[in-house]
Amino acid sequence: MKSPLELYDVTIIGGGPAGMYTAFYSGMRDLKTKLIEAKEELGGRMLIYPEKMIWDVGGVTPILCRKLIDQLAEQARTFDPTIILGQQIIAQERQEDGTYLLTSATGEQHWTRTIILTIGYGILQMAKLEIEGADRYEVTNLHYTVQELEPFRGKRVLISGGGDSAVDWANELESIAASVTIVHRRDQFGGHEKNIARMKASSVDVRVLHTVSQLHSTNGEEIDKVTVSHVESGASEQLEVDAVIVNHGLKSDFGPLREWGLDMGEWCANVSGRLETNLPGVFAAGDFVDYTSKVRLIAGTFTDAVLALNSAKLYIDPEAPKVAYVSSHNDRFKEKNKALGVSDEH
Ligand SMILES: Cc1cc2nc3c(=O)[nH]c(=O)nc-3n(C[C@H](O)[C@H](O)[C@H](O)COP(=O)(O)OP(=O)(O)OC[C@H]3O[C@@H](n4cnc5c(N)ncnc54)[C@H](O)[C@@H]3O)c2cc1C
């Protein structure tokens, strides 16, 4: 027999930086909190660039993205929220008493007073290389993301793509790999001018107006040659490689969430200044929202999280203070400070 559902004050959908910080802040405001993430890992889009050095989060000196994810996840767990991984939420049903019943793609249900949507641009998937049979090399040397640089040491690496990440990876691998070739179907690269200039001035072999047209393998398991072709003339050349990295962008999908009746533009939910959506008890934060002056950066997700959570708190308890207080004003921190051996005089 199924155990009865437990009612949560706040259910956060999406475990990127917005969701993780909301989980922390929700605990600070004494709310019974659940965080549900579709992937098997927390991190959201930060998982695309774990090896990138992050410079632009206030108060955090340059930090590897992987480490920042770990720190955000640790902070999210401060007040022991329930964290559920590997469940994509697809449906919501408002009950007569105003609570919501959520259902995942695999049929699990969750019961909550409020919902905070921190779903970014939905479920992300890497756009795949459109060459028949390419998927068989995904277990060997065809990569769609660079999780670690070390496996590429001393290798002849070919990168296909011209976006932000392709340029970042070319620059990061240049000093580690035996050689780096970047193949891009356009003649302009995306991303920071500074990074593009650095790549062009380095030993990276830059081939614009070219695409990868064939993959070759002598042993049937690993790619050892790649045919690259000019997009206009069709002239082609074979290059010897040890690893191929493809960065053809991301595809994202909101799936059935599009049918929830949210007031949405093409990609984002329109929200009030207090991060309320048009649905009662449903708030949103992070890259999923749109409002004047929205900042689409990790740092921007933190303010959104605070605003959305404070709105959820007031929705549940209209008499509650408008914001949370830290340290000596907040009993939850008194104990935590004591455990850290810190006085809470301030
Ligand atoms: C290549 C690249 C480099 C970047 N570099 C920087 C940088 O240097 N500094 C910076 O500040 N920002 C950077 N950004 C931007 C930053 O990553 C985003 O602003 C940030 O990740 C947005 O966080 P979020 O939590 O709103 O959404 P996301 O990080 O997109 O997380 C959303 C999460 O929700 C989950 N989800 C979606 N739908 C559901 C569902 N139905 N059920 C359950 N879970 C769901 C997704 O799986 C995902 O994990 C970069 C972005 C990219 C792509």
Helix content: 10-25%
**3D shape:** elongated
Which radius of gyration do the C-alpha atoms yield? Answer: 23 Å
Question: What is the structural class?
Answer: alpha/beta
Task: Tell how many strands the DSSP assignment holds.
Answer: 21
Q: Biggest sheet, open or closed, and with what strands and sense? A: 7 strands, mixed
Instruction: Give the end-to-end Cα distance, rounded to a whole number of Å.
Output: 51 Å
Number of helices: 6
List cofactors, ions and other ligands.
flavin-adenine dinucleotide
Order of helices and strands: EHEEEHEEEEEEEHEHEEEEEEEEEHH
Extract low-pLDDT stretches. Answer: none
Mean pLDDT value: 93
* Strand-residue proportion: 25-35%
